[in-house]
Amino acid sequence: SGVLFGFLLLHIIGIFLFTRGFLLSRQVLENKSSCQDNLYHTYLNDDITFQKTVIFLIDALRFDFTVPGPQGENAKKAKSYHNSLKVLYEMALSKPENTLLLKFIADPPTTTLQRLQGMTTGSLPTFIDAGSNFAGTSILEDNWLYQFTESLDKRIAFMGDDTWSALFEQNFNISYPYESLNVWDLDTVDNGVIEHLFPLLESTDDSTWDIIIGHCLGVDHVGHRYGPEHESMATKLFQMDQVIRRLVDSIDDDTLLIIMGDHGMDAKGDHGGDSQLEVESTLWMYSKKPFFGKLSGDLYNIQNGGENYRSVNQIDLVPTISLLMNSPIPFNNLGSPIAEVFLGPQGSDWLKLAQSNFLVSAQVQRYRETYNGFFQHDSQADGLWLAVVDAMNGFSDLSDFTQAQKVVEATVTHQQYTLNQCRHLWARFDMPLIYMGISILILSVVGLILVNKISNHDLPSLSVVLLINSLKGVIIGNVIIRISTFFMLTRFTSPFDIDLSLLILFAAALGYILGLFYTVMRNSSAFHNLLLPIASPKHLYKRGINGGFWSLGGITLILVHALLFASNSFTIWEDKILWYLLASFGFAILVASFRIKNPRFRTLAIYHGVIFLLLNRVSSMSTLCREEQSTHCTATYSASVNSSSWVIFALALMSILLPSIIATFYATSASYNGSAIMWIGRGLRIVMFFSTVFWALDMVEMKNWDISWFMTSTTLGFAKLIIARLVLGSTLLAANFAWYCGPMCVQIQFSAMNSGDKSATGPVRAYILGYSNIYGSVFFLFVINFFASMLVISNPLGALVLCLLMYSILTILELMDIHSLQSSFVIPIILGLMGQAYFFATGHQATIPSVQWNIGFIATQTISFPLTHLTILFNTFSGPILTTLAVPLISLWKIPPISDRMLTGNSQLLLTSCFKNLINYLAYQTVVTISACAFAANFRRHLMVWKIFAPRFILAGINLILVDLLAVIALAFGVGFVVFNVNRIF
What we know:
mainly alpha, two-stranded antiparallel ribbon, 6% strand, globular, transmembrane helix, transmembrane
């Protein structure tokens, strides 16, 4: 386990270095704009357009929620969210000079924290910034809240999503934050906003506030909880409609009302990516006095849900609201002023629009000049700025309509060019760090192969030497890098662009690997095993790497999976391809089963082969489609399916069938005794029953069934919380403790040696039932503990799929035993492929929106470390977790304490066998991770890098670290305990 832990550290270092090189965050300039700047002093004046502003942000307010749905003959196609929030479009039609309705386009990632950053600073987020959505910190960049409080001495009141407090707490005079990430709670935040908003707004004390910000979360939470087409969405949108109408009535002539969303949501109610539905939000501005103009042309067409409706970028709000409040534009802003806001009610005030655009272009140019080292010399940008200056200098008459339009055209071109350039450069790549990270991962695979070549007899004695030499390598590597650094510093001014701490990490990893190489290469058995395939190709053909045709097949499967990432199309369809690979193995082993000479074993092998293929086929039908799969994929994993009665019924039926199925596998080796009866026949069945009850109550809640005669909605929510906590506590804590202290799956049976005379007294023969599978039967109970915990934190369809995974694992173990594949390389690879395939089958994809965040609040009402984080982790990686824990069963399944496979019955040999299977499994996982990283780096300028390749490498990195950790736990805690206990007795 110490060696496995060393590989865990190597993988962490390799992935960390690669990530630091690949996912560099955008550089932040802390410069602040000021009213004292000559530019603002010239053009800004005391004629403030609005004295006060009310900003009401409705989270996930997708644009098509606000425009009329299908009418007339197509009315049947209307969704539940149509025609529920009518006020925005109604007033845009009835009062066009007072109202402005626009499509509001978010820059991905479409997570709330990044959207708030964009809408307050005017800057662009980076891909990796999405990970900080759950740990926001104060914004250091210039933003309009800072400008309002520091430059204008405005008083800001806030209520709603507590993300604002994490970012801008120092700017608020009044603050009522609410927990934002509990997506099961639809009303608390919204009701809190309403409770505090209107008393402030309707107060006669004008000195209390200048800016009010309210951020409601109900629409977003309904989307996450039920999806946008659920009837709860109509209810929530209607509530927002009534609140907006009241806001319109409450403001005065000097107050600007802004209603907006931060992002949209996809068809499942999720967000985080860059699909059209996710990035299209809403901006609505209202003034009691005529103020807004309109552009010419058919730009405000609402046909097809406003598909071609006029849109602006969310960052455009920043210069717009700053100029309206006569405030300096935040220094890092890349947005443009919204034309309709400055054209005037008649749509003809081009001079005001030209001045506004010139101010923004000048600020953008200052930003470029400050970032000069980043943008480098750009003659095209310089030429565009000169064109702006020339156009502005061309004003001979302030009423020159034509010249004003030229200024607008020049400034918009300049702004758009800079924005597009920044979008292209939003992530810079540090290639040395990328190469260092990949090289560590590649060397770790070589190390895994070398360790695997040490003979089973030599490995136990070499383990300590291996660790000592590796640690020596760490020390030597660090000494060398420090001496080299000192030498370079004395010779050169700036020798390294890489942080010294990162170089030390790299040297430590490299030294560890070299120490490992040194130890292994000095071992004669390892050296012989390495050279034998090279010296004798015939040997390679006959035996493969570790035992025959199947091992070569395993290597082929690894290569096919790894090479998928060379194409964006293959990466998109990885879920389907994995099922084809598993089906190929299943078909091959089914054909091989017909060649078994023993009729009984042949029949069993064929039966299990067919079952394996059927289980894979049924599991593959559980599908969550990603956007790029388009119409070629039919999603079966959805909120409607998970809340359907038939899924709950199937889960209830499975709670009866699966324990019985597992019991039949135990019965083949007479192992259904002792603790197996308690674990499988009672404990597992009870846990599965309560998990079914939990999801049945959830279905009742989702369908809004009236069960007030039985329990209130509050009682129902409390009952779900108690059930979830009981299941998780009993499976992860109580069950593992009982497993550690409990009996084995054996029973001693006595019978008279003289069976002919049952009444006679005499010698008695003792039989140990379960002796032939004493290791595997006990260890599988350990796997069952984790499986049982995942049932309540996986949606019903996901729980059903996990049941099929457990059945598949047992089927693979039986096929392995019949075909004598315990020493083959292929079985660990198949388990690895199964883990990856069932990741997709449990409703996940290699995309941010597919993460089932709502699961984090199944056992807690607020974010609670580590419970929230563990439930999301277990839900997301349930497939890989179970298959990793099952790998030791390759060595443990159906062997007695003393057998030919163990030679002498030495427990160290059995531990070594389990260790090597884990090594093979980790080698597969590492190769897949290397491939994902390498192709992400190779396609770093690819159009789809942030949509396809980057999420896949992040998934691979997290998965590798997780399975490394689980391998250590499985070997040290699971296998070590089982082998020690059995050998202590036998």
